[in-house]
Amino acid sequence: MSVESAGISPPLSVRLGQWAERGALGRKLAIVLTLAAIASAIATYAALTPIRTNVSTVLILLNLDLALFLILATVVARALVRMWIERRRGAVGSRLHTRLVLLFSLIGMGGSYGVAWYGIRINTLANSRTAFASLKGRAFPVYSTPIHAGMSVGTMLVSVELLFMLAILLFIPGDYAGPCFIGFAIGESLGASALRIAGGIFTKIADIGSDLMKIVFNIKEDDARNPGVIADCTGDNAGDSVGPSADGFETYGVTGVAHITFILLAVKDPALHVPLLVWIFVLRVLTLIASALGGTIARTLGPLTGASRRAERQLALAFPEK
Asked: Of 126, 295, 303, 322, which shows the fewest CB atoms inside 10 Å?
């Protein structure tokens, strides 16, 4: 027997909750809070823009920003808890899909970090080999070493990406392959974003430190006495290798997931799904093979070309041996 049929009025909290649900109060409150947060952020930026700012006004606006943020976080947390409770009440299959998304998100993040580690390792070796090759006065090794280092990193990240995606496509049942692809794309995107931001911050801090040493001690930025030179080189290596390697891994994977999603949603005939998916992966494998062959040909025939010999003669004339 319900409370209403027994003639007993429900508690005030229950009646307020029912009234809020009927009027969609939660959604309206979220919209109002979002608009208020945007307006407060604009006002805070306007208060901080002048050279002479009013400290009390800035403090009030910052406290208002904090309060709005906490209220918005409470609303979002409440919505997430409700979604989690509804998910708990759902079928076992939905819980399995959620776990698959989380699992393959971790796998995607691991792939991004692994490719970034390989990229900075190869980049460090290529930098050393290029520096020593330049001491011999020959142009082609200085040109070919960075090219083949980049091709090595690119081939490796594409191969790892194809391996993961083919494993999902071949060994995971069709009902669970979709959540696996989505989780993998989310994970590699999150990993690449973190590595891109971390690499950029590292190289910028190292660059600023090297510049400060130049100003304080009145020495050149690339002077061997400047300890910031090593930090600057390491920062450039991190910013130009870690971020782009993980970013390339993420871009290649997300575009593959987008192609698969487009085929499954746009093509209505299920009989065409398998040929189109095979066609996409065959093209990706062929591009990988063609890139490897092109690199091999360039490495084999590069020293024999006239352009390489002319560049070496010009280098020898510009820097004659003593």
From this structure: 322
